Amino acid sequence: xxxxxxxxxxxxxxxxxxxxxxxxxxxxxxxxxxxxxxxxxxxxxxxxxxxxxxxxxxxxxxxxxxxxxxxxxxxxxxxxxxxxxxxxxxxxxxxxxxxxxxxxxxxxxxxxxxxxxxxxxxxxxxxxxxxxxxxxxxxxxxxxxxxxxxxxxxxxxxxxxxxxxxxxxxxxxxxxxxxxxxxxxxxxxxxxxxxxxxxxxxxxxxxxxxxxxxxxxxxxxxxxxxxxxxxxxxxxxxxxxxxxxxxxxxxxxxxxxxxxxxxxxxxxxxxxxxxxxxxxxxxxxxxxxxxxxxxxxxx
Amino acid sequence: xxxxxxxxxxxxxxxxxxxxxxxxxxxxxxxxxxxxxxxxxxxxxxxxxxxxxxxxxxxxxxxxxxxxxxxxxxxxxxxxxxxxxxxxxxxxxxxxxxxxxxxxxxxxxxxxxxxxxxxxxxxxxxxxxxxxxxxxxxxxxxxxxxxxxxxxxxxxxxxxxxxxxxxxxxxxxxxxxxxxxxxxxxxxxxxxxxxxxxxxxxxxxxxxxxxxxxxxxxxxxxxxxxxxxx
Lengths: 299, 230
Known about the structure:
The complex is a heterodimer. By secondary structure, chain A is α+β, with helices and mostly antiparallel strands. Chain A has helices at residues 18-28, 62-73, 95-105, 127-134, 181-190, 200-213, 218-228; strands spanning 3-9, 36-42, 49-55, 78-82, 85-91, 110-115, 118-124, 143-149, 164-167, 170-178, 231-238, 242-247, 256-259, 263-267, 283-285, 293-296. Chain A contains seven helices and 16 strands. The mean pLDDT of chain B is 96.
């Protein structure tokens, strides 16, 4: 089953409310995916910096982790801990060094995602609880995607929860199941894309990352996915500046969208959208199968 | 307010209480008009009603609205989610907006009217229902349709009428493609009269029935061969 919500803001006045709106939307779809939940939010960033989202066991000391990495690399690293996740902010040109140092100095800590603005959180448990534990309702931002998971393709673990991120500021959530993910994963590994799980959705994220790495826009990458990915899917994806939606040609997995001059919203069901501002005046439609929908923020 | 009008606000009344009240209605009830406010996309609104009453729902509904309906007239002043009027037996269901997939699925009788578009699999496995869609229908509509009629004033998506048995399909616009064993058939005066009757019943007037094409079963699939009878 699974539930997806996404919100892409056009009106900057709504940005302080992004997390609150997403949290409400995700909570409504708890019954579509009570196993685990996750979300990616594109919040504030600072020029020249990158944010690494890392995950440890409950009670992990992310400030101590930041100090350890700071000393090893000789750079300033800021850290914020939220439940099992930490956000490490460091100079963008040292991202690779920091990842290597993290793997060496703190092998018990997992890297969840990296972005100039993206932060990514996911955990096992009821979606409402997961949202509260990470303080989603207090997170501002320009856009975000959330997922409530009912596992079918792989185990109920934090690693198996969505969103998946395989590239800087790239995240993807998925409702459905892919049937050719093993073959595609093998090909992508040959191209140098790294995978942390055996999950089908991570392959979709990796596929888009590989396409965009070769110069494709998110829209082009999604169009290519129609040819190369087989199975059931409704994808919602986020990049630093974009927000996209794609449904497979059969369109088994539900999707409803709403658009006003202030936002674009996605929900697996209309129920998730009912408390958005001026929803009564929104254009509401069901995205067509095999059709790429894409919105981009102005530069 | 009409003396017999019942107003139920789903932001303050439990959905189960509403459906339970509707299920208790007797054929001779005086509570013949129900107005439902704030459905907020909830599933299973007005499911299983078995009384000659009118139920007006003001807003968008979720899945299976008016499923298994008997005798009642259910009007949705908004959009409907998956499976509206699923397995309807009789009565009328009228969606003023769009309907999601599997609208009228397995319907055995009665009529489903959709003013907007219906998405994929509209009328899947229909068994006697009459469906009139004023907009377009998505792919695989009337899949394995067994009886009844599907009238589409707009276009039809891919694989219309795949593995169809006996239902009649009338489409005024473009058909993206026909499914297995579904073919275009002659539109005779007999069929024009039938179509006119369906449109009239749905309150659609001023439409030229000559502009429609008729589709149905070629009866060539496995189960149509006498040699395959057990």
